[in-house]
């Protein structure tokens, strides 16, 4: 007896949970900045999260969270506002690439004991199985529509070449963290100084909006193709 294959669902419990967590954090930051003094709050955050030991701990925490498919990229909000963009990019790369390597290893080991349940990221694994070139992997890292944990675990489960996998992570995430860190740091600088956002600050925000739209469109297209392929196989 064959069981029907579930279609990929972009509104799974895991995705909803991640979305709610991000929404709550963003809402909390917004309320804190609105109610309190932005300059004082940013100075307090710098004192707490900007020290060398705290920064090292955040990088390690980010790596561990991504290794075990937790939303480690949220550490971005504890690093980017309190460090210059170039330093923030380096710190974020250290945490996220280490986490990608750890998740790859964990997923590769789990793949030796396969279960017969279809995973939430089956659509992404199917896509990477067919298109695993360096350019494709870089694109998946750059575009925000593809959670890092899904890319990491799909790469490990498929046994993609580790060198290419890590190179794509470094190149793609360098671009992505560059846009994020520049946008966040520029915004916090404007809040701290009480000045309006400058054109050089608005440009990264515009680039981020474009990446979000492209990522969402590409993810929808890949999931739709995967759904059609499942229907054809049945």
From TrEMBL:
Signal peptide interval: none
Protein name per UniProt: TVP38/TMEM64 family membrane protein
InterPro entries: TMEM64, VTT_dom
Membrane topology of this protein: Multi-pass membrane protein
Transmembrane portions of the chain: 20-36, 56-79, 86-104, 201-218
All residue ranges annotated as the VTT domain in the record: 71-184
Subcellular location: Cell membrane
Family: Belongs to the TVP38/TMEM64 family.
Keywords: Cell membrane, Membrane, Transmembrane, Transmembrane helix
Example of a GO cellular component annotation carried by this entry: plasma membrane
């Amino acid at each position: 007896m064959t069981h029907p294959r579930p279609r990929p669902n972009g509104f799974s419990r895991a995705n909803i949970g991640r979305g709610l967590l991000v929404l709550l954090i963003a809402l909390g930051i917004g309320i804190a900045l609105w109610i309190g003094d932005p300059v004082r709050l940013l100075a307090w955050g710098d004192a707490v999260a900007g020290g060398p030991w705290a920064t090292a701990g955040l990088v390690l925490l980010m790596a561990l969270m991504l290794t075990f498919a937790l939303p480690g990229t949220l550490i971005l909000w504890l690093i980017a506002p309190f460090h210059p963009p170039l330093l923030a990019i380096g710190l974020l790369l250290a945490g996220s690439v280490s986490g990608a390597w750890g998740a790859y290893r964990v997923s590769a080991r789990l793949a030796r004991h396969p279960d017969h349940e279809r995973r939430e990221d089956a659509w992404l694994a199917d896509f990477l199985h067919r298109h695993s070139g360096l350019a494709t992997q870089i694109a998946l890292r750059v575009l925000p529509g593809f959670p890092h944990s899904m890319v990491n675990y799909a790469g490990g489960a498929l046994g993609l070449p580790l060198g290419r996998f890590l190179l794509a992570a470094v190149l793609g995430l360098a671009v992505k963290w560059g846009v994020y860190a520049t946008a966040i740091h520029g915004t916090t600088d404007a809040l701290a100084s009480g000045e309006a956002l400058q054109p050089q600050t608005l440009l990264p925000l515009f680039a981020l909006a474009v990446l979000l739209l492209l990522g969402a469109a590409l993810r929808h297209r890949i999931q739709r193709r995967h759904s059609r392929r499942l229907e054809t196989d049945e």
